[in-house]
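HUMAN: Quick job: go over this next protein and say how the chain folds.
***
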Amino acid sequence: MAVTCSRSGVYQRLIANQIFRFIYEELQEVNKTILDYFSDKDLVIDNAIYSPIDPKTGKTRTTRQKLAWIYQALESKAMQQFCTLVVQQEALLTTHDCVYFKQKLSSSVVLDASVQLQDTFPFLRFEHEAIYPIAEDSYFAQLSSEAEQFELEHKQRMAEEEIAAQGYLLAKARSLSSATAAHSAFFPAP
């Protein structure tokens, strides 16, 4: 027996799910709000000018294509402003959703720039992580070795702290025990 699953069948099952349908309807409302806000025929974001006609195909763009253009234009604007605010170092490369710097930015630099951008982009969140260049296996072996060494040293420090904590608890228990004995000597039980 062959089982087939058509796209429309999957879509119908999703729409039949009350939670999914609620999310879908809310997303449609968000899209409508954005399109209404940017309803001007002469839509300009920074230096980017929206054209309702796709220059590659000569066809009229759909509302989804317009939304994609708006998202990308605003994302580009945010990244440009972020690069302007980060004066500690110059961006090496910007792509459609990422800015590359030679060295990892400190958390305080990212936070400061993000806070300044909150007026224009209140829901914007920047994430940052180290990107390692393409290299020989020996380079990654060295990184792995350093990470293993760090972890080993950390576990050793934790074990030492555990022993010190046990010693502290034992000394505290002895001190309480002798204090209780001294108290009992002055105040015998009835």
User: Anything to note?
Assistant: The chain has two domains: 14-117, 134-168. The radius of gyration is 31 Å.
